[in-house]
Amino acid sequence: MTSKDYEKGQNDNSFKNFINIPYIFLKIANRYTEMNPLLDEFILEIKKLTKCDSVGIRLLDTEGNIPYEAYQGFSEEFYQSESPLSIKSDKCMCINVIKGDADPEQPFYTNRGSFFMNTTTKFLATVSEEEKGETRNVCNLSGYESVALVAISLKDRIFGLIHLADHHENMVPLEIVEILENVAMQLATAIQRVWIQQELKDSEERFRQLFNTGFDAVIILNEDKKIIDVNETTSKLLNYDKEEILNLSLKDIIHEKDRTKMDEIIDNFKKNHLDFKSETTFLTNERKSIIMEAGFTPLKIKNRNFIVGSFRDITECKESEKALMESERRLKEAQALGKIGYWEFDITNQHITWSDQVFEIYNRDPSLGPPSVDEEANYYTPNTNERLKEYARRAIEFGEQFDYDFQVNLPSGMVVQLASLMRSIKNKSGQIIKLVGTVQDITERKEKEKEIFDLAQFPSEDPYPILRVNRKGVIYINDAGQKLLNVVESDQIPEILQESVKNTFESNQISGSEVELDNRVYS
Predict the structure, then answer these.
(1) Domain for residue 452, yes or no?
(2) Domain check: are 121 and 180 in the same one?
(3) Are the CB atoms for 266 and 296 separated by under 8 Å?
(4) When comparing pLDDT for 177 and 455, which is higher?
(5) 515: containing domain
(6) In a shared domain, residues 192 and 214
(7) Among the three residues 445, 480, 505, which one is the final residue of a domain in this structure?
(8) d(Cα 514, Cα 19) in Å, to the nearest integer?
(9) Domain ends where: 445, 480, 495?
């Protein structure tokens, strides 16, 4: 693809049709073994693609600085002002993107953490000085109306960012930013490769495969299973100095429950050289357990055989799995206690899913699966069935949401009252693809409400004290109240209630309190 192709793409707004764009940047990424020419050619091609005035690439160093390692178009004054930024002391959008502090809920951030703005002056005019805070806004002060900051990242590590700026508006639409996010991933891979190659140039030959394993912990063993080398990640994970680990054996850093298993795995690997994954619990210097996923690779140097063990920390993953299982267990318990069930209807496949609690509420054997449409109709009166069908139709056609109560007639002859929510779910295209909802058994609540209603109609029959008062005193009190409080109509308000009554009159709002009478607490 040539720059004319890029220009044509901008004119017809069809960037996504340029299938050659990834190939162009992939060729650049694989062409260089040194950083400067790699970054320079990436910038050149990005300028061709975007037609932006200025493009720069910042890389994060070990001290937290994010200097421009390469740039075109920015003035020398701008470069001198902006290149020395640090994530430790400065505040601006560059810092937010590199630190991963992007908020995808904001319209100027993408879901992958990039920032873009096509009208900086107009936007800043809508932001108060307080909201701007300590951000520097140097791009706008330098006359750039269009600005994009695309993180250069791989997995969870951010290496730096691609900075685009132009004095014209609307030069960095979302479509081009999304393309650049994919380009940035290729650049991240290339940067990591160049860094590794630069390290390997200064290392002995046996370190070559060691550091090619990336971010995993790596342990090199000789044929006697003695540790002869480890990478920095291993030292950090186990909290040992490298020299300390080299004086240890495998059994010193592996949990006793896995030592025999690890011996067998290594022996089997030495014999068959079959690569496979296993989970092993390692021990840190403080004897803390870390669960690792282990893999092995043979290494031969000068007719000597070695084993390279690559270990990935999956402790958090395992803990998350355990937490998820516990969360699901608690959710089921909560649903059971609250008598709440969840249902889902896949419109495309016409498939219904019920949670365990829905089966419980409907008194249906889970082995039967959810009922068919005709079977479910048997649970309702004709009027209720038609009402539920109408709700479903409107939810599917118009995306309406419903909160409603209804009655279910169980096969046992029992009648239960349910409260339900119905919501529609859309795909990325905005098409409604499923309905979801909850049902809750509110039979007891309905019965209590009826009981309270009935008692409210006949307060004299209520077994609990009921009073009606004004500022002067008691104007009504039922028999239960007279016996408990020892007052009758026209008496003064009992002293124990005076403060609550006063607060209610003064606030003109419903209020509540608790009082203790005859060793019982009333509210």
Answers:
(1) no
(2) yes
(3) yes
(4) 177
(5) 459-522
(6) no
(7) 445
(8) 72
(9) 445
Burial code (b: 16+ CB inside 10 Å, e: under 16) for 23-36 equals: ebbeebbeebeebe
> Model's pTM, two decimal places?
0.41
pLDDT tens per residue, range 477-506: 888 878 888 888 888 888 888 888 888 888
225/298 same-domain check: yes
164 and 53 co-located in one domain:
yes
- Across the beta sheet with 115-117, what order do the strands follow? 68-72, 54-59, 157-166, 146-154, 115-117
Q: What is the CATH number of the domain that holds 415?
A: 3.30.450.20
- Distance CA(286)–CA(239), nearest Å, equals 8
Sign of CA dihedral 288, 294, 299, 304: positive
Tell me the three state secondary structure of residue 200: helix
- Asked whether residue 301 is domain-assigned, the answer is yes
What is the rounded CA–CA span in Å between residue 240 and residue 244? 6
439 in Cβ contact with 417 (< 8 Å): no
- Per-residue pLDDT, 3: 41
DSSP state of 16: G
How confident is the model over 6-43, as pLDDT tens digits?
444 444 444 444 567 888 898 998 888 899 999 999 99
Q: How many Å apart are CA 109 and CA 116, to the nearest integer?
A: 6
**What's the distance, CA 81 to chain centroid?**
36
